């Protein structure tokens, strides 16, 4: 769709101001990090004082600690348990991971990064070489955290912790599995929160299977009952772009208050509500008007379901309330997952309560296990791709039931350099899934099996179908570099050595995303 671009000077001024806003936002983030580091040091010093003052008074430590937490909770308007967590985490950060605290103070990482590093650290309390193990862990994790998101840092940190102290990690996993439970609590308005504490592998497998089953339900809907894939606000923007493209230089500019337009649109009845109001009552069969169905009102945009799970719909869209049948099935992906979970749990009977669920996993999960561990020669931790380490016993069970295996060759750093059965198409896909593991936009963790393969240099413009020109992008970030996107919004991606992706934003800023290394469990 053609658009009218603003005059060149105005566009340049806009880019300059956008850059200033971005730089200001980044600088404030660094200042907040420095303040968070100061707060952590203050809390750590307070806990040190308590330990020194009460060291000669046996039996008083618990009450003293509780009293201290109560005072900080009252002063900070937070629950006492939250205050206790803040204090103990701050002490661990300041006294056990000083380099991480220094990085936070300099603004190189955020408080969220620091919390992840502390939480994922190996439990080496009482170990004769505890300081050395913590230092080795911090040296491997901190550089990663300074160049990536907190979510990705968590996955990397958990892998490093398992590699640095595998005995402790395996024991932590065994202890955590003993805490499996299911709880429920009221959430108000007739709703409740059902929480299941499960092994990580099973939890992600359940979620993936629910997603796949929700996709099946969505694809099975009659064409006229498929729900819109764009939010009302996105439609308003599209309509405005169309008006801009058609206006003459002397036409008044269309309204730019998109939020007001959005609110106004929400007050209008949805198309199916109009149809319901006009439908005759009684036993007479209702036939839709000639050539009209639900898709006439929403256009022909049908994006891949994995692009967005939190699809926005009209407030008056008829939703499933969890009871009975629907005339129009317009449930969101989240609602479908919840309904399918309830259906499965309430309408099936377990065949056995003594067998393991690992043998029944039908969802899509990817694990990496060394050949020596698979053969039983050692018990090195395996990896649940995208999430962290898993016990070798669980990995062997899954590998024994896998329909196919992909063997990956790794260099000493953990980088995948080759896969078996290399062929021009399927082999390349296997290699890319193994190398990239997730979407290669900075910070994105969309898993590989929900991503698209992109030619970094457009194939239509001579880009080769080669590994050095291919990588995985999710359906949210892949369109950002499409040539049809307005130049003011278009990103570019270029692949450098070692699979590093260099992204260039519309403002000319560059961001890199490195291929995630496989943690080498020894």
Automatic annotation (TrEMBL):
InterPro entries attached to this UniProt entry: DUF222 (IPR003870), HNH_nuc (IPR003615)
Bias kind Basic and acidic residues: ranges: 167-184
Signal peptide coordinates: none
Ranges of residues in domain DUF222: 55-225, 322-436
Highest taxon listed in the record's lineage: Bacteria
CDD domains: HNHc
Location of the region described as Disordered in the Swiss-Prot/TrEMBL record: 164-184
Record-given protein name: DUF222 domain-containing protein
């Amino acid at each position: 769709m053609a658009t009218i671009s603003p005059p060149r000077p105005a566009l340049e001024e806009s880019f300059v101001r956008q850059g200033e806003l971005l730089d200001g936002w980044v600088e404030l983030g660094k200042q907040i990090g420095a303040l968070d580091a100061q707060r952590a040091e203050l809390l750590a010093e307070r806990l040190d004082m308590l330990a020194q003052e009460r060291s000669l008074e046996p039996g008083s430590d618990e009450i003293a600690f509780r009293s201290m937490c109560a005072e900080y909770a009252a002063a900070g308007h937070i629950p006492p348990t939250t205050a206790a967590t803040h204090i103990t985490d701050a002490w661990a950060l300041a006294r056990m991971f000083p380099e991480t605290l220094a990085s936070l103070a300099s603004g190189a990482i955020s408080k969220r990064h620091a919390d992840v590093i502390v939480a994922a650290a190996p439990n080496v309390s009482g170990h004769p070489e505890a300081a050395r193990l913590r230092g080795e862990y911090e040296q491997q994790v901190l550089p990663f955290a300074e160049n990536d998101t907190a979510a990705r840092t968590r996955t990397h940190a958990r892998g490093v912790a398992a590699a640095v102290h595998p005995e402790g990690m395996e024991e932590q996993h065994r202890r955590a599995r003993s805490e499996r439970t299911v709880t429920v609590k009221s959430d108000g308005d007739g709703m409740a929160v059902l929480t299941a504490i499960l092994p990580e592998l099973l939890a992600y497998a359940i979620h993936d299977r629910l997603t796949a089953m929700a996709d099946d339900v969505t694809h099975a809907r009659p064409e006229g009952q498929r729900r819109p894939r764009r939010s009302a606000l996105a439609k308003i923007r599209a309509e405005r772009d169309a008006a801009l493209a058609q206006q003459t230089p002397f036409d008044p500019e269309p309204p730019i208050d998109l939020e007001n337009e959005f609110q106004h649109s929400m007050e209008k009845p949805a198309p199916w509500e109009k149809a319901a109001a006009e439908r005759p009552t009684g036993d007479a069969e209702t036939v839709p008007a000639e050539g009209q169905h639900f898709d006439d009102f929403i256009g022909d945009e049908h994006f891949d379901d994995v692009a967005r799970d939190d699809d926005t719909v009209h407030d008056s869209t008829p939703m499933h309330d969890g009871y009975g049948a629907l005339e129009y099935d317009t449930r969101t992906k989240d609602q479908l997952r919840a309904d399918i979970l309830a259906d499965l749990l309430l309408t099936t009977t377990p065949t056995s309560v003594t067998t393991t669920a690992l043998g029944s996993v039908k969802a899509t999960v990817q694990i990496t296990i060394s050949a020596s561990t698979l053969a039983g020669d050692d018990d090195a931790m395996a990896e649940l791709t995208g999430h962290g380490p898993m016990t070798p016993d669980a990995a062997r069970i899954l590998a024994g039931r896998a329909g196919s295996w992909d063997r990956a060759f790794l260099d000493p750093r953990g980088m995948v350099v080759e896969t078996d059965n290399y062929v021009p198409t399927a082999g390349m896909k296997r290699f890319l899934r193994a190398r990239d593991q997730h979407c290669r936009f900075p910070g994105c963790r969309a898993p590989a099996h929900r991503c698209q393969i992109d030619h970094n240099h457009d194939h239509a413009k001579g880009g080769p179908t080669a590994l050095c020109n291919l990588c995985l992008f999710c359906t949210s970030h892949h369109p950002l570099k499409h040539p049809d996107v307005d130049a003011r919004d278009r990103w570019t991606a270029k692949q450098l050595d070692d699979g590093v992706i260099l992204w260039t934003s519309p403002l000319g800023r560059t961001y890199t995303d490195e291929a995630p290394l496989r943690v080498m469990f020894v």
